[in-house]
Amino acid sequence: MVGALDYKGFPADRSKTGGWVPAAFILGIELVERLSTLGIGVNLVTYLVGTMHLPSATSANIVTDFMGTCFLLCLLGGFIADSFLGRYLTILIFSALQALGTGMLAIVSRIPQLHPPPCGHGNHHCEQANGLQMGVLYISLYLIALGTGGLKSSVSGFGTDQFDEKDEKERTQMAHFFSRFFFCISLGSLLAVTVLVYIQDAVGRSWAYAICSLSMIVAIAIFLFGTPRYRFKKSAGSPIVHILQVIMAAMRKRKRNLQLPQESSLLYEDCNGAPRIPHTKQFRFLDHAAIITPEDQEEGLRSRNPWKLCSVTRVEEVKMVVRMLPIWATSIMFWTTYAQMVTFSVEQATTMHRTLFGSFSIPPASLTVFFVGTILITLAVYDRLVNPLYRRFSDSRQPPLSNLQRIGLGLFLSIISMASAALIEAKRLNIAKDLHDEHGPLPMSVFYLVPQFFLVGSGEAFIYTGQLDFFITQSPAGMKTMSTGLFLTTLSLGFFVSSMLVSMVDRITGGSGKGGWLADDINKGRLDCFYWLLSGLSLVNFAVYLWCAAWFKPRPPPQDMEMEVADKGNSNGMER
After folding, report:
1. 235 in Cβ contact with 220 (< 8 Å)
2. pLDDT given for residue 118 in this prediction
3. Which residues span the membrane (predicted)?
4. Do the Cβ atoms of 69 and 149 come closer than 8 Å?
5. DSSP characters for 489-507?
6. Contact predicate 57/189, CB 8 Å
7. DSSP letter at 281?
8. Alpha carbons 481 and 551: distance in angstroms, whole number
């Protein structure tokens, strides 16, 4: 197999390496990562409020900051994998960090000195966690976030390395790998919001977190066992560095007031026989990076400094990334609404009637099972029913919805979900107001929250697959890993925007001393107003997205894209 090596550094033998067996070892790591990260994240707010005695808004922000950091660190993990360690070592090191973090969290939740005394039993004032207790908790959480970010950035890439795109059989297997990769994510999510959350509430958090740590250790052992079967591919370098090189080269030559040539053929281009991307007139500023100066001639184009001179193809790759940024920016708002499903929606569930079958009480965080289930149902209906019917009656091989249309549908569903959440919360607050200060769950079924979970879940099914398709198909061939990381940063920034909005709303509405919209006791707040705010912001964002989607010009399929192949004697007559 060309370009692939075995673990000893020799060319990989197709019969002894790669395929489904080593891919399965890699998928096991991803399943356990989802189990741990989501299982901790969805039920963390109840721990912060109920055990650490933190205010509601503060607890929500800690959860969203934690989840956001997990995805933001995917960029760091991808950079380390591409530039230094490679995907195999990155997965190994960062999965060990996650196992360490979950193990430490198990200890934190077990030792009484690492959280404040419980309320009641003579302690009429609930004491908040002190600096030391919160510091140890933060170290645990952000070790997990660091492990998740580094691990998540490389798992899918290393999995696809086990298949040869040039072999028809293995190319088909690679397509199935992505569906099984998503299945493992979904299975891990289901186990997290059902089994793991139940263990946290019914048995103990320390036991649940210890299970996460031990599961990751077992997954690492299985991953190591498969080492002789893996295929390893050399990295071509970090795309982030390539982007910075184009920007720096363009800025240097722009400062020197160098004029762009009238003909694009006078700009620098590599002549190594590789496919080239045709020059475009958009974002002309970046073209300065490809201007050939006398200094470049003296230094020799063959030994060029990429921080001073970049090829047209390299410049066009950066332009392709820039064109994706408006779609990237307008996708963030969806994940801000998503963040409410693991924070305030869980808090709502704690105040409502959750008894089922007489005595079984549904854990509040387990309501997210409707969220995960909706994702699976939506994808199944779309792939197995809508897609085949559309192709049958339209005689088209294209999917019924393009990637931009799927993103737009997800954004639209997020608007409706927040409006639905606001209406349900208004009903819940009216019931709480009628009961005044009575203790115990409100006489309102927790299943009233299902519509908001259903709508956000359906929205995620469309926007997640749409974004993944968009960022992979519209990115340059050499920047697939980075574009996947760019997609994951929309999740990260969505959580951070949620934290920012919560802080702003709490500061503005809580100034009167009445607790504001996001009061510590949500029965005395106005969470419905916050949901209406999110619905309004999502509507504005959706309008901006429609404009950006109309402006964006999709990249044509590879077989239709005009590529130029340079030869040694090109038109400008320069030796390169």
Report:
1. no
2. 82
3. 20-50, 62-81, 87-108, 181-200, 206-225, 321-341, 361-382, 403-424, 444-464, 485-505, 530-552
4. yes
5. HHHHHHHHHHHHHHHHHHH
6. no
7. S
8. 25
Q: Which residues contact 301 (CB under 8 A, 6 or more apart)?
A: 268, 292, 309, 574, 575, 576
Residue type, 549: A
Looking at 230-301, list the stretches that DSSP marks H as alpha helix, in order from N- to C-terminal side. 239-255, 294-299
Handedness of CA 143, 144, 149, 153 (dihedral sign): positive
Tens of pLDDT along 209-246? 999 999 999 999 999 998 999 988 876 667 788 889 99
Work out whether the CA dihedral 556, 558, 564, 566 comes out positive or negative: positive
Query: What domains are defined for the chain?
Result: 1-235 (1.20.1250.20), 239-316 (no CATH), 323-567 (1.20.1250.20)
Question: Among all chains, which residue has been given the structure tokens 């982007």?
Answer: 243
Query: End-to-end distance of the chain based on CA atoms, in angstroms?
Result: 31
Residues contacting residue 486 through CB under 8 Å, at least 6 positions apart: 75, 321, 324, 328, 471
pLDDT level of residue 573 (50, 70, 90 thresholds): very low
Residue whose tokens read 């028809």: 168
Report the distance separating Cα 243 and Cα 418, nearest Å.
38
Backbone φ, ψ for residue 362 (5° rounding): -70, 125
For 468-492, write each residue's pLDDT tens digit: 778 877 877 667 667 777 888 898 8
Residue 442: φ, ψ to 5°: -70, 150
Give φ, ψ of 445 to 5 degrees: -65, 140
According to DSSP, residue 521 is labeled S
The C-alpha atoms of residue 225 and residue 219 are separated, in whole angstroms, by: 10
Q: Which amino acid is at 244?
A: L
Q: 186-210 burial by CB neighbour count: b if 16+ within 10 A, else e?
A: bbbbbbbbbebbbbbbeeebbebbb
Residue 311, helix vs strand vs coil: coil
Q: Which among 315, 319, 317, 295 has a CA at the least distance from the CA of 305?
A: 295
343 near 64, Cβ under 8 Å? yes
Distance between CA atoms of residues 424 and 345, nearest Å? 11
Among 19-23, 119-123, 515-519, whose mean pLDDT is lowest?
119-123
CA torsion, ordered 11, 16, 19, 20, to nearest 10 deg: -150
pLDDT tens-digit readout, 175-204: 667 667 777 887 888 888 888 888 988 888
CA 251 – CA 78 distance, rounded (Å) = 26
Residue with tokens 């060309």: 2
312 and 255 Cβ atoms separated by less than 8 Å = no
Q: Using one digit for the tens of pLDDT, what is the confidence trace for 434-463?
A: 886 666 788 888 889 999 999 998 998 889
